[in-house]
């Protein structure tokens, strides 16, 4: 089993560090370690270092905790309609699928 199967890796070119603690996630579905995200996304305008997409929207870049507390998980979706929760879940699964595909492509190209 490769590291890509169960762990997010930094999408910053040449970094590929295992993400833990906090990560920066973009609207273009890329994830970055805290070090590279803090450096890259402090500039304006923000540009995704993985795909060069412009990130100008309020929620185009989010710093997120990768292991949220049980209290947070219990409340974050509370009150939302079931179809909204399912939509959020589908988007989260699509994000992970994309990350795994990117990891496989990176592994193939680095051979």
Automatic annotation (TrEMBL):
InterPro entries in the cross-refs: CCNB1IP1
GO cellular component, one term: synaptonemal complex
GO molecular function, one term: ubiquitin protein ligase activity
GO biological process: reciprocal meiotic recombination
Name by which UniProt lists this protein: RING-type domain-containing protein
